[in-house]
């Protein structure tokens, strides 16, 4: 994943190139939040609540929202007719 950052005081611009479609994206985040995300081990949604789920996914995986959705669109439309209504665990 191609990514680089540029810091401007309390603002950091994160530049990513999607691994799939090769489009470039620039995300503006608070420098304090980015530092916290990189160093604290906190969940990304807690560090960047103002970013969309798709923007956070780009930071995590390097895959843009459009490509990520396209990767899983067939799974969402599959019928669930083969799914059992319930499952009984074997007695031990």
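Sequence proposed for the structure above (92 residues):
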């Amino acid at each position: 994943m191609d990514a680089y950052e540029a810091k401007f005081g309390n603002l950091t611009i994160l530049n990513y190139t999607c691994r799939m479609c090769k489009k470039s994206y620039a995300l503006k985040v608070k420098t304090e939040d980015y530092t916290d995300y990189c160093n604290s081990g906190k969940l990304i949604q807690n560090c960047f609540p103002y970013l969309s789920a798709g923007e956070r996914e780009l930071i995590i995986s390097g895959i843009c929202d459009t490509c990520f959705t396209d990767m899983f669109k067939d799974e969402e439309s599959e019928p669930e007719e083969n799914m059992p209504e319930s499952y009984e665990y074997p007695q031990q």
